[in-house]
TrEMBL record:
Keyword terms: Apoptosis, Cell membrane, Cell projection, Cytoplasm, Fatty acid metabolism, Hydrolase, Lipid metabolism, Membrane, Transit peptide
Topological type in the membrane: Peripheral membrane protein
GO cellular component: cytoplasm; membrane
Source species: Nocardioides humilatus
Residues covered by the Thioesterase domain: 58-122
One Pfam family of this chain: 4HBT
Subcellular localization(s) per the UniProt record: Cell projection, Ruffle membrane; Cytoplasm; Membrane
Catalyzed reaction equations: tetradecanoyl-CoA + H2O = tetradecanoate + CoA + H(+); dodecanoyl-CoA + H2O = dodecanoate + CoA + H(+); octanoyl-CoA + H2O = octanoate + CoA + H(+); decanoyl-CoA + H2O = decanoate + CoA + H(+)
InterPro entries linked: HotDog_dom_sf, THEM4/THEM5_acyl-CoA_thioest, Thioestr_dom
PANTHER family, sorted: ACYL-COENZYME A THIOESTERASE THEM4
EC number from the UniProt entry: 3.1.2.2
Annotated protein name in UniProt: Acyl-coenzyme A thioesterase THEM4
Principal place of residence: membrane
Length: 160
């Protein structure tokens, strides 16, 4: 397992990239995410979607929620040093997410089969579970990015 600088400060995770539209501090839509790694695997934390993420007034947009699910699922894997992309993402909305509502999250690897890992992300509000997401993530070689003309600005993000 990698010992990421992100995991050495009381298990807290910091944004993986300044310009990531979900977690990056340069993003005008940066989501308030406070993610921590309580143990060897998995992530817990808090998430708040606000008025920048609404679909109808007062309710978070389902696409914004899905992006947050993808971000959290990805964080579970990158902190383990896994180089991956998301191949498929399903998001089940059990109840509306209100803008400004503080949610707790937990995420973990549900299964690993060959290059495929399924990561589950649960989001809950004060009244209980609001979202369950499942990301099917596929391990990829470094060439997945280098053949696209991308270099260390991407490949260095994995396994820090
Ligand atoms: C822009 C990339 C960013 C990546 C990560 C980002 C940041 C990393 C750093 C820190 C991150 C911290 C937090 C993370 C934050 C966000 C995470 C975002 C992650 C993303 O958002 S990333 C962008 C969107 N994502 C893509 O850009 C993928 C496009 N796509 C492809 O690049 C190929 O499609 C690929 C590589 C997926 C597969 O291609 P391939 O040729 O390598 O392999 P192949 O097709 O053989 O599939 C192998 C096995 O997966 C099964 N399989 C494949 N696809 C499936 C599907 N859809 N449903 C069910 N099963 C599927 C096959 O059935 C086979 O299964 P089996 O082995 O059992 O036969």
């Amino acid at each position: 397992m990698s010992t990421s600088p992100e995991t050495t400060i009381a298990g807290a995770l910091t944004p993986h990239h300044d310009r990531c539209f979900v977690c990056g501090p340069c993003s005008p839509a940066q989501v308030e995410l406070d993610l921590r790694c309580p143990g060897e695997e998995g992530i817990v934390g808090d998430v708040v979607l606000d008025a920048r993420h609404q679909g109808v007034p007062g309710i978070a947009h389902g696409g914004a929620i899905a992006a947050v699910v993808d971000e959290i699922a990805g964080s579970v894997l990158t902190r383990l040093g896994v180089r991956f992309v998301t191949a498929s993402l399903t998001t089940t909305y059990h109840a509306p997410v209100m803008t400004g509502e503080r949610l707790t999250c937990s995420a973990w690897i549900e299964s690993t089969v060959g290059r495929k890992r399924t990561v589950v992300v649960e989001l809950a509000g004060a009244a209980g579970r609001v979202v369950t997401g499942r990301a099917l993530c596929v391990d990829v070689p470094e060439e997945h990015f280098t053949r696209l003309g991308l270099g260390s600005e991407v490949t260095d993000l994995f396994g820090r």
